[in-house]
Amino acid sequence: QVQLQESGPGLVKPSQTLSLTCTVSGGSITTNSYYWSWIRQPPGKALEWMGAIAYSGRTYYSPSLKSRTSISRDTSKNQFTLQLSSVTPEDTAVYYCARGGPWHTSVVVTSPGQYDNWGQGTQVTVSS
Predict the structure, then answer these.
(1) Residue 40 to residue 42: CA distance in whole angstroms
(2) For residue 38, how many other CB atoms are within 10 A of its CB?
(3) The pLDDT value given to residue 106
(4) Burial of 7 (0-12, 13-18, 19+ CB in 10 A)
(5) Torsion of CA 18, 52, 5, 113, to 10 degrees
(6) Closest by CA position to 35, among listed 10, 85, 71
(7) Of 21, 41, 83, 111, which residue is least crowded by CB atoms under 10 Å?
(8) Which residues of the chain have pLDDT under 50?
(9) pLDDT of res. 73
(10) For the chain, how far is it from start to end, CA to CA, in angstroms?
(11) CB 29 within 8 A of CB 36
(12) What's the CA gap between 24 and 74, in Å, rounded?
């Protein structure tokens, strides 16, 4: 059973960069046809897909966040990371990492409901 666990600071100051790591156990992030995403939920709002890194290492980003988002991975540690720059209080949310697949497509799935393995989520607050 694949398990995902988010880690990172719970408080970030405005204009700084938010950095989160997802540690995966029970399966490899390089397993063919699986996609590893970051999804967030601001208070009182719906889940928002932010981006993903595929088993191949290819990255995909939400158009609305692309200019501020970077997703990378460390295959030796079986981890993938999220960096969100120039944060504002509107970036306050519970952040989740999640796995989807196997999908035999080069078009990334952006619907959070299609991801079947999730971390427990981590609260990130942007405040001075």
Answers:
(1) 7
(2) 27
(3) 77
(4) middle
(5) 120
(6) 71
(7) 111
(8) none
(9) 98
(10) 39
(11) yes
(12) 11
Preceding amide of 102 cis, omega within 30: yes
3 state DSSP class of 81: strand
For the stretch 93-123, pLDDT in tens is 999 999 999 998 878 899 999 999 999 999 9
Q: Quote the tokens at residue 128.
A: 């001075």
Residues 6+ apart with CB under 8 A from 121: 6, 41, 94, 95, 96
Asked if 38 and 51 touch (Cβ cutoff 8 Å), the reply is yes
Whose structure tokens read 């993938």? Answer: 80
Beta bridge partners of 60: 52
Instruction: Look at the chain and count its residues.
Output: 128
